[in-house]
Amino acid sequence: MPLASCPPSFELEQFLLGRLEDVDSEKFEAHLSTCTNCQKQLTTLVAEDEFVQAIRTHATNAAAETKSHLENPSEDLVKLLVPHFKQIANALEETGSFASNPATVGISQSSDLVQGRISGEATSLPQLGHYEIRGILGQGGMGTVLHAVDPMLKRSIAIKVIHSKLVADPTMASRLVREAQAAAAVEHDNIVAIYAVETHDGSPCIMMPLLRGKSLKQSLEEQPGPCELTETLRIGRESACGLAAAHAAGLIHCDIKPANLWLEAPHDRVKILDFGLAIVRDDSESDTEFICGTPGFLAPEQARGLPLDQRTDIFSLGCVLYLMATGRAPFTGERRLRSLWTVLSNAPTPAVELNPELPIEFSELIDQMLARDPNQRPASAAKIVEAIEACERRIVERQHKVVRRRWLAAMTMVALCSGSGVSLWSLMNTHPTELPVKTTLIGDLPPLAIIIRREGQEQNVTLGREKTLELSPGDYTIRPVADQPGRTLIPDHFSVEPDKPLSLRIALVGEIVNHTTHTQAVTSIAVLPEIDQRIYSAGLDRVVAAWEPSSTVEPRFGDLPHAVRCVALSPRGDQIATAGGNKQIPVELEIRILNANTFEPLGEPLAGHSRLVTVLAYSPDGTQLASAGADGLFVWDLRQGKFESFDQPEPHTILSLAYSSDGKQLLSGDDAGQIILWDLQTRASITMIAASESPVRTVAFLEKRWIASGDDGIIRIWHEGDLLHEWIGHKRAVLALAVSPDGRQVVSGDADGIVRVWSVSTGQTSHVLKASSDAVNAVAITGSGRQAVTGGADGVVRLWQLPFSD
Fold first, then answer.
1. What is the mean pLDDT of residues 637-646?
2. What do you get for the CA distance between the two ends of the chain, in Å?
């Protein structure tokens, strides 16, 4: 119910300073939105603090410019109070409420691109570019978040489509894209990754992982009140770690709040969201007129429209820690204007007064983070990490002292009762002054039992996806509990440094298992994109085999009328194409399409080649099949069973093919050492380079680059026809090569039976695997990127565990 009459001046002052309860504040807001008399009175109030002074200054300027009363009091009041907060003003004009709460934003506020394409039924959701849209995850003031599937990589992703009104200005659109690209360059465990920044129909779209878990906001709503101290410290530390990495790259988030801190399942690791909407510090851009925070978590300089820096994020993180530590927001409520006013008016009650169980040093840290003057806050997020870690160490030290006292008392009683002369000192830690350090060990599944050894002392640990230990500083060695012939633990040692938490990824690298179904050389390998444990192989013995290493069932196989020189698996994994034929009569030049489960033929063979087919490749959408050999390049429309031939600049035998991720281009390598980039729409070669003086037997796309290898044993990386890198390591011809799904590792096999694992970031071999004394003819990497499959001239198909990528 609104106020019955205009309130006296002192109550207006109390309202502006945020000193009224929420119920009374709501009545005042309703009254002020319609009463021009009270709005005028705001400009005559005694300037009790800088905010009231700012109101009077802005009001005087506005009156001088317009020389008229406010036409729309509610909307113009916001503009009057926060002149640089353009986005908040726009949100009020559209909805009458702030758009920071996604639950209050309707579909009408999403971008025009999404609004025009989505009907609301998951089964009728269309594509966005080549991404398959599965549903709407939510809407917010910045746009709409979609659940999508990347058909090329066969993984679910989240796509944030930016609100069209925010990018109506071309400068704003380019700025958002540029800043999201800058954010994508920051790789940190506590920042959600950005896969790509693309523009579709004029709307910037940010591609991100589809995370499991829930936001900190959801967690706090489920369990109101103060959080456990250890959780508050951990979440604060991990959030500050992510901010430190972003700040080091020149990024400021500008909207740190519980909704933007994601607790990733299953261990609630913090992931900072929405760095794609951050700002980049730039001497030429000191304003923040395009960026707004969220009332209740924004810094005073944001409310005043002043230049921002990393200390702005520190203030917002302080608000989050205050809320977690006390169960209450530091600035009264999250109502529309009130939290904006209180952040400029009153310092919050010290957290320790609301929660006496808080360590005083942690409460003081929060107070420093919430200082109105940025110069009084911690200088960097790294300083916050140090302060929280120090607090955590003191807590652990106090706990250890309690445990140690109890333990000593118990051991003393045992010694007295038994008359034992055993020295209590010998039963204690040999390094009593050392404080344990949090050490996280990450491995593969199934779990692996390992032994950690230090100074003659051993500890058994079962290593699964993640295991956290408290280890004393020092040097450690690790080994499997059971002998693992042919496999190596990488790394096999590590060091724990005082006061430095450690995260270590451990892999048991080497051959896991093999099968010998084939009686002659294996020529080709294929794996399902999303299922690690289904492997297809084919060879000169006229057999195509399907193998599931995790199953006890023997590999199943299908017989073909000719030797198989190449196979290709459709993106959906439901079809497998085979070709190759015999060099002598009957030549068998046809391509057969088989059911991948039963190996039954699907329709008539594809006939058109006049020479042996050497290589096959499915398009990313599965509607096309590229085939090639000595008689050129063919691209088949599988829906019609027809092909189009491509004219080669020179008559050479094509030995390798690869589709681009968008399916618009095709890369080929031939026996003359040439690499050709083909345009599938014009059927013409775009680029042709002389890659080597010897045959190019493998080609692949590595994002926007090309990677190729061949008989000279050198792996080369190209970009738009320019040679970037040469990886030298193989002594013989590289016959097979595969790129991991994340693009971080490359696996190659050569004529000596050597398999090398390469780090893309360093260009160095991270591990060498010895397959056999015979050539490795085929290589594939599983969908998870953690295992590789090889097929060799010895007829053996092998499954390998890979080291973790950089």
1. 91
2. 61
Residue 396's Cβ-side half-sphere holds a number of Cα atoms within 13 Å equal to 17
**pLDDT confidence band for 703 (50 / 70 / 90):** confident
Here the tokens at position 725 are 């890198």
- 119 to each of 104, 206, 207, how far by Cα in Å? 20, 21, 21
Q: In angstroms, rounded to a whole number, what is the distance separating the alpha carbons of residues 657 and 642?
A: 19
Note the maximum CA span of the chain.
105
Q: Which residues contact 267 (CB under 8 A, 6 or more apart)?
A: 466
CA dist 364 → 243, 371, 627 (Å) = 20, 11, 69
**What length is written for the chain?**
806
If you search the block for the tokens 């952040």, which residue do you land on? 343
pLDDT tens by residue, 765-800: 989 998 888 999 999 998 888 999 999 999 999 999
Question: What is the DSSP code string of 491-511?
Answer: SSEEEE-TT--EEEE-EEEEE
Residues 6+ apart with CB under 8 A from 355: 226, 325, 326, 327
Amino acid at 368: Q
Judge whether 305 and 82 are in contact, CB under 8 Å: yes
Q: Is it the case that residue 458 has pLDDT exceeding 60?
A: yes
| Tokens encoding 687 | 């680029």
Euclidean distance between CA atoms 384 and 330, whole angstroms: 19
Q: How far is CA 182 from CA 274, 279, 402, 515, in A?
A: 12, 9, 48, 47
Burial class (CB in 10 A: 0-12, 13-18, 19+), 651: exposed
H or E, element range at 56: helix 50-66
Helix (H) / strand (E) element for 147: namely strand 143-150
b/e code 449-469 from CB counts within 10 Å (16+ = b): ebebebeeeeeebebeeebee
Going by pLDDT thresholds of 50, 70 and 90, the confidence category of residue 266 is confident
Nearest-Å Rg of the Cα atoms of the chain is 32
Q: H helices within 185-269, ranges in order?
A: 216-222, 229-248
Confidence of residue 253 (pLDDT cuts 50, 70, 90): confident
Phi then psi dihedrals of residue 601, to 5 deg: -65, 140
Q: Return the H-helix or E-strand segment holding 659.
A: strand 654-659
Rounded CA separation 685/320 (Å): 56
Look up residue 688 and give its amino acid.
M
User: Do the Cβ atoms of 570 and 576 come closer than 8 Å?
Assistant: yes
Closest CA to 317 of 335, 340, 299: 299
155-162, strands of its sheet edge to edge: 127-128, 131-140, 143-150, 155-162, 203-209, 196-200
pLDDT digits (tens, 9 = 90+) for 681-701: 988 888 999 888 899 999 999
* φ, ψ for residue 454, nearest 5 deg: -150, 125
pLDDT score of 666 = 95
Residue pair 342/329 in contact (Cβ under 8 Å)? The answer is no
Q: How far apart are CA 627 and CA 629, in angstroms?
A: 7
Q: Are strands 155-162 and 203-209 parallel, antiparallel or unpaired?
A: antiparallel
Residues 218-239 pLDDT 10s: 999 998 899 999 999 999 999 9
| Mean pLDDT, range 67-87, rounded to an integer | 41
Map residue 193 onto helix, strand or coil: coil
**139-169 per-position pLDDT tens digit:** 766 778 888 988 877 788 988 888 777 767 6
Count helices and strands in the chain by DSSP H and E runs:
17, 46
- Dihedral angle of Cα 440, 443, 447, 451, to the nearest 10 degrees: -60
According to DSSP, the β-strands at 493-496 and 474-480 are antiparallel
- Looking only at the bridges linking them, the beta strands covering 437-442 and 261-264 are unpaired
Helix (H, G, I), strand (E, B) or coil at 579: strand
Q: Which of 795, 738, 769 is nearest to 515 (CA)?
A: 795
Q: Please answer whether residues 309 and 281 qualify as being in contact, where contact means their C-beta atoms are separated by less than 8 angstroms.
A: yes
